[in-house]
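This is your field. Have a critical look at both lines of this record:
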Amino acid sequence: MAKNDNPLEKYFRANKGNLIHKWLHYFDIYDHHFERFRDKEVVILEFGVAHGGSLQMWKNYFGKKARIIGVDIDPTCSKLVEKQVEIYIGSQEDSTFLKKLMSDIGTVDIVIDDGGHTVKQQNTTFDEVYSYVRDGGVYLVEDLHTNYWNEFGGGLRKQGTFIERSKGLIDELYAWHSRDAESLKVTEFTKTTPSIHFYDSIIVFEKSTVPEPSHKQIGKPTIGDVERWEYRNN
């Protein structure tokens, strides 16, 4: 998509509503993963309300059938409620609050973690919310450059950051093929996540049911021993 054709960036650059603060390269990432949800009955959950501009942007982008839910720790954000837009007040590093939140709103199609950007907030939110993303949905965490900043709990290759956690989750994508079931097991994540997309400052998890992979050979062999070309499980 040409830069000027991105509907989110066009909205952003023409915005006369509430303040929006975004890195400009995010818009193509958003549109790539979110475009299929436009003009459908979808539930969007965004952590980090600030001035409410992004909630208005999502409302414009996804259309009149969308339910937009914002979460922020600042109680003054409650005044930003409007048609199609709901606001919940609470801390995204509070597991009890998150459990209650998800019990109240149920499953969602898209999660956008644009909250406080600390390592603890990102990890706690993922722990409590990821399972509520519907089959076919998307979980997006942004501003992950903070995982390299000490004041946010980060640092280069520091264990426990969301970046390092996500690198480890790549192994779980491949767990179907593990020959050491003790160290790498098929998990619920393996069964529900077909792909992880890494971008500058953003990680996107696409969710859908993942069947156990299978393979077969079709056609006539032409080179050497057929069996030496087969995949083996022992």
User: Anything to note?
Assistant: Residues 3-212+220-229 form a domain with the Rossmann fold fold (CATH 3.40.50.150). The two ends are 46 Å apart (CA to CA). The first strand starts at residue 43 and ends at 47. The chain is about 30% helix and 20% strand.
